[in-house]
Specification:
mainly alpha; 200 residues
């Protein structure tokens, strides 16, 4: 009797094991790639600029400080920022590609430099002042909505034309009329700065 019960228990265990062994594995959804820039920088403050814009503008603002980019770093960083411009101009670019280049930029910088940039808490309003210095007027971002420089979404053709006419009268260029040049102006200025630092 005991042997029969033992065999029955053993058979039951084996059956359960085979059922679980043959069951299809649960599908695992891959996590969305995150940038290592997020380990140092954040957008969790009022009117925060994007991580990429913080990196770009922050790099320029490090000039003259103890954390300024070195000539060796500048030579390494230039091709990465050039890649950002090229990828930004391609409508087929996946966000993962830009994130990968952004990660390379972060890796080429020191923790002290990144922490110094984080401490600046760069805002969209601050970037608007920077763009205005180069004659580019961008719309004020709506809180909680990321506005891409150079895009004119949300405006009618009449509103775009009126904005361009007003800017032309003032001798300025609007963000809605500059397209790619407005979108990449900040990155171009980073490259100019780095080229000067690298002595090229």
């Amino acid at each position: 009797m005991k042997k029969s019960l033992f065999r029955l228990s053993l058979l039951t265990l084996l059956a359960v094991f085979f059922i679980y062994a043959c069951a299809p594995a649960a599908e695992v959804t891959p996590a969305a790639p995150t940038s290592i820039a997020g380990e140092y920088l954040t957008t969790e403050f009022t009117d925060a600029a994007s991580l990429r814009n913080q990196l770009a503008f922050g790099t320029i603002k490090l000039e003259g400080t103890a954390n300024a980019v070195t000539p060796e770093q500048a030579k390494t960083l230039i091709p990465f920022w050039q890649a950002v411009i090229n990828l930004s101009g391609d409508d087929t670019t996946a966000s993962e590609e830009l994130t990968a280049v952004q990660d390379q930029i972060v890796t080429a910088m020191t923790a002290d430099q990144l922490q110094a940039i984080a401490a600046m808490q760069i805002t969209n309003a601050g970037l608007n002042v920077f763009f205005a210095e180069y004659g580019v007027v961008l719309p004020t971002p709506i809180p909680g909505v990321t506005k891409v420089p150079g895009s004119g979404s949300g405006k009618t053709e009449e509103e775009k034309a009126a904005a361009e006419a007003t800017a032309a009268t003032l001798g300025q260029t609007t963000g809605t009329g500059t397209g790619q040049s407005a979108k990449t102006l900040l990155f171009e200025k980073v490259i100019e700065y780095l080229t000067r630092v690298a002595g090229q």
